[in-house]
Amino acid sequence: MSPAPIELTPIGRVESPLTDPGDAPKQGDEGAPDAWLVFEPAVLDGLDGIRPGDDILVLTWLDRAERDVLRVHPRGDVSRPPEGVFNTRSQHRPNPIGLHRVTVVSVDDRRVRVRSLEALDGTPIVDVKPVLSGDPDER
Amino acid sequence: MSPAPIELTPIGRVESPLTDPGDAPKQGDEGAPDAWLVFEPAVLDGLDGIRPGDDILVLTWLDRAERDVLRVHPRGDVSRPPEGVFNTRSQHRPNPIGLHRVTVVSVDDRRVRVRSLEALDGTPIVDVKPVLSGDPDER
After folding, report:
1. Mean pLDDT over residues B70-87, rounded?
2. B23 — contact with chain A (CB < 8 Å)?
3. Inter-chain CB proximity A46 and B7 less than 8 Å
4. ipTM > 0.90 for the complex
């Protein structure tokens, strides 16, 4: 029996100078530009407390990924043997959720500016979480 | 205009002694038990290369969370002022995706045993990713 599907609702979109998948770095710290996270008006209360300097995790929906791929060459490097997609950060996977750790530069009403995001312009945002302190007493 | 919804397909489920939400710790390193990740037969090739000792990120769908909550008291502590859910790790949020960093204990055909997972028994799994090395040359 196949499991029942789950429905996500985008909470916003990425606005970025990155428009060509061929230009996108594989990870944010590999030369990605700053970008805006533009949120839906309905979820703005959820951003309360996010401030410049915060480290956040942005979860996106990689809408240009392939969902029927289970093995890839890591980092697209054909000299490396194929591995299971769950052992790589390939965008291609059954549920292409992107996970991006970024620093907040500024917060402007419904937009949050972040440093070094490798997601393409127009990518849907599905969640934002704070980076957890390693010390439970600081959570 | 509301954005178009996105459909996720569960790739497996958590098997855990944790069945009562009231017993679940807030984070894995706050006393959570070991658990099995049980994968759908159709995605097993995607696990190729995952080995005991690996640190992985498990993304789940927190199916017992509320989706219409935008402000919460952090960690449910009413002595702390409410904050936006995107500035907390509350399970309650528009798209309740759980993010769990765990260590693989063993791999057994379609099951992966992991250390200290706070997700409840039966929670759908939607993605698995390796923890990235901080050094791009090791990725």
Report:
1. 93
2. no
3. no
4. yes
